[in-house]
Amino acid sequence: MKILVLNCGSSSLKYQLMNMQDESVLAKGLVERIGIAGSRIKHVRTGLDAVVRDTDIPNHKVAIKLVLEALLDPNHGALRDLSELSAAGHRVVHGGELFTTSVRIDADVIKGIEEVIHLAPLHNPANLQGIRAMMDALPDLPSVAVFDTAFHQTMPPRAFVYGIPYHYYEKDRVRRYGFHGTSHFYVAHRAAEILGRPVGELKIVTCHLGNGSSVTAVNGGKCVDTSMGLGTAEGVLMGTRSGNVDPSVMLFLMEQENDPKVVSHIVHKESGLQGISGFSSDLRDIEEEAEKGNERAQLAFDMLCYGIRKYIGSYAAAMGGLDAVVFTAGIGENSSLLREKVSEGLGFLGAHFDPSRNQVRGKEAEISAPGSKVKILVVPTNEELVIARDTRDLVGKR
Question: Where do the annotations place substrate binding (predicted)?
């Protein structure tokens, strides 16, 4: 059974072709700058060198056509015929309260995704473009939607309702939704496998740390709280996003700038590591400059580590205990310094850190000290595998 996993952005399309017999990746690639000058497709068949093709790609329909052509190429493709494809799995950022699990895509599902566009105006339209382009290209191929928000739909109202007039929730569904759900689901379940314990018995805090970051409390395999909210700026400090900010600050900025779009740009594009350091949103640059004595770089780094540590402590309290902390995504998997600084001071929870075990990048590892009651793990995320598995389970074998 071969499944094509698609992740469509407004000007990009990431893809993986997976063989679900052994869950191996047969090929993967990236279509860049869709609808923009300088567009291209980069395709890699597993075991071969990457192939890059510069060509005009005006829309997602053309992008899908190029992906299918690359997969069929006699030299670097991974399919002899498109009939080998069993299904397509699509990442969809926002499912609102309509979608609590992954679903087979039909006209009603597409209508539902359209109905929550206002909750993710930058993402859902692009996701829909990819879905429609794929269905146009292969109308008989089953398609599945896997939602970033679905895993967080098990949160209780005390965790997702905001302290504003309740009618805004009733009328407009203003609430905490959370994101990176597919990643949090994967690493929590994989951590349980590594520890050799049923996920249903564990209290885990998963830290998805990248340019966008979120921290999630997973109790018995279910999300009970998460740091991102209605949008993607709440929570810990991020690359260019502010993280938690007093609403009074937002009101002050609105009065100063007198333009919601300007304030939105400040919060999403000019804040975070970029805003505090003044020179970069990349944690690698921040760490390098902090080492040289740059005080603002050090402040940005310290704010990020402090914020993550606060979430770990608060979520341990919310769950009434803690069995494991998991680091994942670009920063979580690769920054040994951040993992060390976040883990410092967690001994009161029974989480004891081992610096010698922490010298890992991008691979699974336990970095807690021998005998630590609370385990500290690094688990590279694999959202594509979750999408492929859900797709397989929903369409059955063909």
Answer: 91
Structural domain contains residue 388: no
Q: Which residues, 6+ apart, have CB-to-CB distance to 346 below 8 Å?
A: 309, 312, 313, 325, 352, 353, 374
Q: What is the CATH number of the domain that holds 86?
A: 3.30.420.40
Q: Give the span between the Cα atoms of 349 and 26, in whole angstroms.
A: 43
One pLDDT digit (tens) per residue for the chain, 398 residues? 999 999 988 788 999 999 999 999 999 999 998 888 899 999 999 999 999 999 999 999 999 999 999 999 999 999 999 999 999 999 998 999 999 999 999 999 999 999 988 888 878 888 999 999 999 999 999 999 999 999 999 999 999 999 999 999 999 999 999 999 999 999 999 999 999 999 999 999 999 999 899 999 999 999 999 999 998 899 999 999 999 999 999 999 999 999 999 999 999 999 999 999 999 999 999 999 999 999 999 999 999 999 999 999 999 999 999 999 999 999 999 999 999 999 998 999 999 999 999 999 999 999 999 999 999 999 999 999 999 999 999 998 54
Where b means 16+ CB within 10 Å and e means fewer, 17-36 reads: bbbbeeeebbbbbbbbebee
Furthest-apart CA atoms within the chain: distance in Å: 61
Structural domain harbouring 351: 197-383
Does 313 appear as a known binding residue?
no
Residue positions annotated with a catalytic role: 148
The answer to whether 14 is annotated as binding is yes
CB 75 within 8 A of CB 45: no
Alpha carbon 42 to its chain centroid, in Å, reads 22
Q: Is 211 annotated as a binding residue?
A: yes
Task: Confirm whether residue 310 is marked as ligand binding.
Answer: no
Q: Which of 62, 16, 71, 6 is nearest to 35 (CA)?
A: 62
261 and 133 share a domain? no
* 130 marked ligand binding residue: no
The kind and range of the H/E element at 69 are: helix 60-72
Supply the pTM of this predicted model.
Answer: 0.92
Residue 32 lies in a domain: yes
Shared domain check, 374 and 233? yes
75 is in an annotated binding site: no
